[in-house]
Design a protein that fits this description.
alpha+beta; 4 strands; 33% helix; elongated; two-stranded antiparallel sheet; two-stranded antiparallel ribbon
């Protein structure tokens, strides 16, 4: 192998590695995060209409967290709410 072939081979390996990293990163993000665009101003001033949120999946919500839930009334509608109490918390 001469210098040009080694150089070309190195560039090909770098391109394949970068593409593989991007694909793996995309898959990991889709497994652990849900992107969500805020549709209205119901959570202002903390979250404004049009803000992009990334919701962490597979975790237990705690007080103060923002969660996405499916509407019990409208099929296919997603609601965004803030957790005000956790299991076992007494509300007055």
């Amino acid at each position: 192998m001469n210098y040009q072939e080694k150089s070309r081979f190195g560039i090909i390996i770098k391109i394949i590695s970068a593409a593989g990293g991007i694909i793996v990163g995309f898959i990991i993000c889709r497994i652990f995060f849900t992107p969500f665009r805020m549709p209205d101003s119901s959570m202002e001033p903390n979250v404004k209409s049009g803000d992009m949120l990334f919701i962490l999946k597979h975790s237990l919500p705690k007080r103060g967290d923002i969660v996405l839930i499916e509407s019990p009334v409208e099929a296919g509608r997603v609601l965004i709410k803030r957790v005000v109490a956790a299991e076992g918390t007494r509300l007055r």
